[in-house]
Amino acid sequence: MHGIIRKGPTLVDGMLVVMLFALTLLLSSLMRPSAPGSVLEVKTQAGEERLSLDREGRYPVSGPLGTAYIIVEDRMARLENAPCPLKICERMGPVGASGQTILCLPNRISVRVLGKVSVDAVSR
Fold it and tell me: Which residue of 3, 22, 74, 111 shows the fewest CB atoms closer than 10 Å?
């Protein structure tokens, strides 16, 4: 009734250490903030336009439902007065880090901050 007692680490112990190390690296890379962007890429059915985050202002953007406005303040951009029914695009809040996006699907408008992205995926 005596079991085998091993002295020292097993293969499972080694795999666990490797997985914990990989998880630590993954989490530390995801927690780094994105680099600030400097240019907005605005796409509509009419085409594509670029705006600078350095230049504050209120910029009209037209879609099939009507005109929305991109507000640029403090190197951040947000959508305002969107004619879409649910206003999800307005509730997405301001964006300013590279890779962040605001989408207004009913009005077919997308606003994306361009620049170097230091995070593989972002969920909002």
Answer: 3
Cβ 78 vs Cβ 90: under 8 Å: yes
CA 81 distance to own-chain centroid: 22
CA distance 44 to 110: 7
Q: Which residues does 26 contact at the CB level (< 8 Å), separation at least 6?
A: none
In this predicted structure, the answer to whether residue 118 has a pLDDT above a threshold of 60 is no
The rounded distance, in Å, linking the Cα atoms of 107 and 100 is 19
From 82, 84, 60, select the one nearest 72 (Cα to Cα). 60
Stretch 48-54: mean pLDDT = 93
Burial grade of 90 (CB within 10 A; 0-12, 13-18, 19 or more): middle
pLDDT, one tens digit per residue, over 2-16 is 667 767 778 888 888
Superfamily of domain 39-114: N-utilization substance G protein NusG, insert domain (2.60.320.10)
